[in-house]
Amino acid sequence: xxxxxxxxxxxxxxxxxxxxxxxLLKRAEGEKYPNLWQMVTGSIESGEKGxxxxxxxxxxxxGLTPEMFWVAPQVNSFYSAERDEVCLIPVFAAVVNPxxxxxxxxxHSEFKWLKKGEAKNHLAWKGQRxxxxxxxxxxxEKNSFLKFVExxxxxx
Length: 156
Fold this sequence. Notes:
Elements: E1 2-4, E2 7-16, E3 19-27, E4 37-38, E5 40-43, H1 50-62, E6 68-80, E7 85-95, E8 108-114, H2 116-122, H3 126-140, E9 149-150
Parallel strand pairs: 1-7, 2-7
Antiparallel strand pairs: 2-3, 2-5, 3-4, 3-8, 6-7, 6-9
């Protein structure tokens, strides 16, 4: 068995009337896991760093450009029996301008901006729901103990 990291998860959110709204995308009919609601996800390409994949996938899947971008203090995982691998999935958070227009890719059929509770109800996997909770807590609690590592977009 191998341990690999070939995928990323990026939670895009916006601030509207001082409330966080998370962007969820519905997978298209012809895709793996059709009709599943998810955040931005994607495969890390050869020579690419995980955070670079997240930024590329945000652009490709939504047409959005993050104003700020962080490494969330969470790594999700799953086991693939087919490949006998444990896959570790780094989690990222990105805030976008609330007036930005989403342009979904053919991988998805629709999108929704949802508050924390609704977003969690739409997500299939526990780790993804926990990531929404962690991101929400960090950005809404005045004295949050969490410290996300920000990636300076101007340096990229």
